[in-house]
């Protein structure tokens, strides 16, 4: 059996997809990954084969910097970072405006390239990142069945009267004005309509007999997989989803890191892990406030500084561990708390490790994820632009002294007993996906 994994050229997307694919690998199946060159080393590290497939202009091998992006993408990334400094609505507004040009990149040619890859690899099963719209367009137009993996919070797939890009819920620390929300929804509706028109125009070229979509953001494959714990998802929203499976999480195995293991063994002092992921680590100002908040506490901190050099931080105790990239899964297994931006990989990996969270969300589905953490009693959320060091310190104390550690431990035990990669393979094997149409 051969599994084809189709992923954008972003480490944060490929890592969970590759982790799911290890279930096939360990069963003796072949795994082929179609992605861009920036993440080739990740494919190699997993021991998979790779075919080149570019699904967008940008890329991210693990830590993203504006200066590493193609012309145009660099300015867009700087604009995004600037928007996060203003606040939730401004960031979502910026992302909505950029969405029309970055989610369907060269749609017809991309779709044809995906079809060519399928024809070349001849897979028995396919899994695709839900946000790889051009790839899914090609598969849909050719009538190819595939596992559609929603890697972010499930709000990435709108249901009911939701509009893509407009959060259906957000943490209590955020209090946007109703007129701002109304303007944001109107903008997202106009982007939805333009995006759907673009999708339908490409679909008409690829498959002239296909029925046009009413909302391309709501389109999904026939085999829907949600890389998210069902316990963190509102039951009323779950009822609106098409047939699906909640995977819980896709937690990867990390190579042994001698330096980190030695640091962990130095002391029994509780560890707090801090990371804003590959994108938001550029917010040095917020990370510095977190440093100032945690420095007086009787803890040790492992801080993944990302795109910010460790030397830029001041007031760092000598017992802390600072490095551009740290083995997150390894550290979470030994942490008492994570301070995070609320990216889905961080939230689901922390949940699997049974670690409570303090979430400082900046963009997209991070607001919904932060609200889910609050609602499930796993921690608190703060506004990263307004939270002071005293606010952060008080929130950390409240999380650690309250019921969140027990709730997180119980959820982690359940998620570890039912790994997402095994759920994914069982789900796809339970459905006949072995017939790939002849595309010639």
Automatic annotation (TrEMBL):
Protein name: Glycosyltransferase
Keyword Transferase belongs to the record: yes
Xref: InterPro entries: UDP-glycosyltransferase, UDP_glucos_trans
Source lineage: Bacteria, Bacillati, Actinomycetota, Actinomycetes, Micrococcales
Record key words, sorted: Glycosyltransferase, Transferase
GO terms for MF: UDP-glycosyltransferase activity
A Pfam family hit: UDPGT
